[in-house]
Amino acid sequence: MNLSDDQLRSFAALLDEVIPPSADGRMPGAGQLGLAGRVARDLGAQPALAEIVVAGLASADRVAREECDRPFAALGATDRRRVLARLAEAGTPLAGMLAFPTYIAYYEHPEVLVALGREARPPHPGGYELEPFDERLLDGVRKRAPFYREC
Amino acid sequence: MAEETVDVLIVGAGAAGAAFAWSLADTRMRIVCLEQGGWMNPATYPTTGMDWEARALGDFSVSPNARGRKEDYPVNDADSPIKAAMFSAVGGSTILYAGHFPRLHPSDFRTKSLDGVGEDWPVDYATLEPYYAENDRMMGVAGLAGDPAYPPKEVPLPPVPLGKLGERLASGFDELGWHWWPSDSAIATRPYRGRDRCVNLGPCISGCSQGAKASTDITYWPEAVRHGVEVRPGCRVREILLRDDGMADGVVYYDEAGNECRERAEIVVIACNGIGTPRLLLNSTSRAFPDGLANRSGLVGKNLMFHPYGMVVGYFDEPLEGYKGPTGCSLMSQEFYETDASRGFVRGYSFEAVRGMGPVSAALSGMGSGRVPVGEGHHEGFAQVHDRSAALLAICEDLAEERNRVTLDPELKDANGIPAPKIDYRLSENSERMLAHGVERAKEVLAAAGAREFQVNSPLSVAGWHLMGTARMGLDPERSVVNEWGRCHDVRNLFIIDGSIFVTAGAVNPTSTIQALALYVADRMKKNLANLFD
Description:
Number of domains of chain A: 1
Number of strands of chain A: 0
Shape of chain B: globular
Largest sheet of chain A: none
CATH superfamily of chain B: FAD/NAD(P)-binding domain
Largest sheet of chain B: 7 strands, mixed
CATH topology of chain B: FAD/NAD(P)-binding domain
Strand content of chain A: under 5%
Order of helices and strands of chain B: EHEHHEHHHEHEEEEHEEEHHEEEHEEH
CATH class of chain B: Alpha Beta
Radius of gyration of chain B: 22 Å
Strand content of chain B: 15-25%
Structural class of chain B: alpha/beta
Oligomer: heterodimer
CATH architecture of chain B: 3-Layer(bba) Sandwich
Structural class of chain A: mainly alpha
Helix content of chain A: 40-55%
Order of helices and strands of chain A: HHHHHHHH
Helix content of chain B: 10-25%
């Protein structure tokens, strides 16, 4: 999905409504994190959805200018939500449509993993250490007589 | 150039084909295995990259329909609540399996005699036990001897660590006084036969980058190839040919470049799984077998059994470190394995514990259940689910029913134009009752372990990875497709060795038994080479 610079700004603002920044500032918004290009690229694999999103962005900008005299990207959070609610009422729930690709891009991002207290790395090759199995845990189960059926 | 005739031609290089080829290799016969997939490179598996969770939904999905790799064939599973899961490669579905490796129980081979349902197998647990043991050594099975749910057995490697999550679940079973035991796992918990030890990286079901999980591309195949077996990857078999005397003559297949080829063989062995095997037989028609090869009984493709899975996710108040350790291997319970008439169903189920989800999976699952909303409240919702979930799967025994079947789809085809399989499957009333029972008992365990709320997914639609019964064994040619050692009743040099030949499903993951059967059939063949076709 190819977007102009203006569209990318609107798209980033939209992603901040899919995953907004956390109230304590610990977790960034998805738009703030710079995911607009990545999510737009992923949407390229779904042309029908991409078409709806591009049209929805245009609608969001038009409604924002009509009601607030500013482009969607320049709105504060309250006004953005009002605009998106209008579009959703009209049958285009833009934020919901973008949830799947945005959640994926957000929760595999190194900055997000670190903010969650995880290491910013793939599982391999580091893996994780675990204590060996403690056989004492089975003390109770071992007291039980065999209960499979002989046949 | 004269057309070569090989001694043994195996179709399919998965769990069964690999074990069978390795066992037969010591005969020094000329053995060739045709496999539609290729050799895998563990360095490219998802867990080597940051996008490991997304790839498990894409090119490493368990569903061939979602994956859409060239080597996959599509499956029409629209008329089944359980969707087909499999993988095409040298190693087959062991590339993506969890490695959960329990054996069937003695009673699973005698359900008709004991409980009046299904059919008795023409072999029993005692007959297969040496082959189970041999397979455990070859695959490198981790676990612990002394489980009261099973006859005594040796286990080659120490058990997979439980971790904090597993210990919480174990405490739940203990609280209720119910059986649990560390899982038998086809995972090297210490260096074993050239494989490195497990480093608890998590999602075995996306392929093991570490090489600790026993997929057959790194267990049986290297040894079989060293002993002279030839594997031809990228070769998809279209049909099995028949000679005028009623014996199999070999196969027609497409090579990697799409060229139509023939391979003649003295013995043909099918190891294509419970969907691929009936598909191949049904695609192999002739004047002698207009309804599919070896199908005089009319049972090829019928009696398809899955394991209906009831999944209950419990959410806890504190972090469980559930991302550490093999996803599907920690502990299991067989408290409800055997028939108890007071429960309202016959036969039973196992519980298999499932560790936690990664961040992406937690977010997507939370979105689906409404726990992780879009927009306001997102982070609060995510914090409630991330690293705070543990799940139990009730793996229910499926009873064979002829209405549950694999046929050929009239329109759907694979990349080579070969008709694709169609599944028609419905849950029985017995399965529905068993699932309901399993879900309620799972909630009790999770609650006893400290879970504050639950999410139920039953039947688990993505869980069609155990494919059984569609060319079953038996002594009666009217009621079975192969005899007690895998030879087709109708074609004496045609053998089937995969999950298709299961008579009953049991309530455990089938790979251990599939491979024990393959080793058993190979051994019977070796002992009867002089009169194999009598």
